[in-house]
Amino acid sequence: MTLALRMLKNRADAEEALQDAFVRAFGALSTFENKSTFATWFYRIVFNVCSTQLSKRPKQREASYQADADEGGAPEPVSDDMPDVDYESAEFQSIVHDAIGAMPEQYAAVLTLFYVQEMGYDEIVEVTGLPLGTVKNRLFRARVLLQRSVLKRLGEGEYA
């Protein structure tokens, strides 16, 4: 669900894309050849479904990104003794989450696959169908965008 949310930036669209991906995967299950892990194969289907939905959207994209607690909401407390540290940690995670949600889909998707889904470069290449150099480039640019966005928000005093 995280990949679909990051790419589509809309919960309803992400749920619809995920349902479509499950239907497609079920229909193509007999063609799965174990050349990759099942997860990588399925993520490729999810990525393709989301890419197709994005290509059908008008040029102006929706900016409504609603995440539930199960999709990166409030983190578990670090300790009972330090509520200020827990609050700052939750606030920082919220800033990072918002920054990724505001990124262009091409960067948010690669960043999500790498950090959230913990995929390596080869798996991301397999899921996205992009060349290795492009995956590395997008991941680099996504990190730069994330860093700039987080530093900008921290500089505005939202985290202080």
Describe this structure in words.
The protein has 160 residues and is mostly helical. It is 68% helix and 0% strand.
Count the beta strands.
Answer: 0
Helix fraction, binned, reads 55-70%
| Helical stretch tally | 7
Shape descriptor reads: globular
Task: Label this structure with key terms.
160 residues; 7 helices; single chain
Short description:
This protein is mainly α. The chain contains 7 helices and no strands. The longest helix is centred in the last third of the chain and has 24 residues, at 132-155.
Please specify the SSE layout and strand pairing:
Layout: H1 2-8, H2 11-28, H3 38-56, H4 83-102, H5 105-116, H6 121-128, H7 132-155
Helix pairs in contact: 1-2, 1-3, 1-5, 2-3, 3-6, 4-7, 5-7
